[in-house]
């Protein structure tokens, strides 16, 4: 039987560059993580959308 890795949402929110994409990992309430891969243009758009919400 294959080894099981623990699946937990513990840990910080993080974003790392992996070759040509940026991988964003967000811990979720109730466990698990949302993992999203975006390119530079999508990351900039996400930044602008979040800034508009925070400034509003």
Automatic annotation (TrEMBL):
Give the Pfam families listed for this entry. Answer: DUF3117
- Top-level taxonomic group: Bacteria
For this entry, the protein name equals: DUF3117 domain-containing protein
Q: Which organism is it from?
A: Leucobacter exalbidus
